[in-house]
Amino acid sequence: MSGTVAPPGFEPFHSSPFLDHLGGVHRATRDRGPVFGIEVRPQHANTMGGAHGGFLMAMVDLATGQGARALLGHDDGYRTLSATTDFLAPASVGDWIEAVPSIDRAGRRTVFASCRLTVDDLLIVRASLVLATVGA
Does the domain formed by 11-134 have CATH 3.10.129.10? Predict the structure, then answer.
């Protein structure tokens, strides 16, 4: 870890080897549920020096799957079936990104969810996902 100083309320978060490979993911709990954060590092950058789209999608996927567990209040796992993503603004190396998931509709086997990535108050990514409940 490169010495990321997360904002107050964020704690390091670990859930998988892939997440550990990304490095530096943090989690906080706010009024509406979990928020995931990470500092964009040089290894997360594309050839133009901004956060790579694949890295941003990984944060969306992580936040939505882990967020669904917290927001729905159970330990089921979730597999992403589909994701529609709009990249609205770039993020740069050194930016702190926050990922805020929400549940739009939840059934027994399928969850429709959304996720917003922001830098400060700027919306940089919005995504809609369909998740399958694993084991349902």
Answer: yes
Got the DSSP string for 74-115? S--EEEEEEEEEEE-S--BTTPEEEEEEEEEEE-SSEEEEEE
pLDDT of residue 92: 96
pLDDT band at 114 (very low <50, low <70, confident <90, very high): very high
47 conformational bin, left if phi > 0, alpha if psi -120 to 50, beta if neither: alpha
User: What pLDDT is stored for residue 29 in this prediction?
Assistant: 95
Q: Are 89 and 124 in contact (CB under 8 A)?
A: yes
Q: Among residues of the chain, what percentage have pLDDT more than 70? A: 96
- Could you give the maximum distance between any two Cα atoms of the chain, in Å? 43
User: Hey, what's the torsion of the CAs at 110, 124, 36, 7, to 10 degrees?
Assistant: -160
Quick one: how far is CA 54 from the chain centroid? 12
Q: What pTM, to 2 d.p., does this model score?
A: 0.92
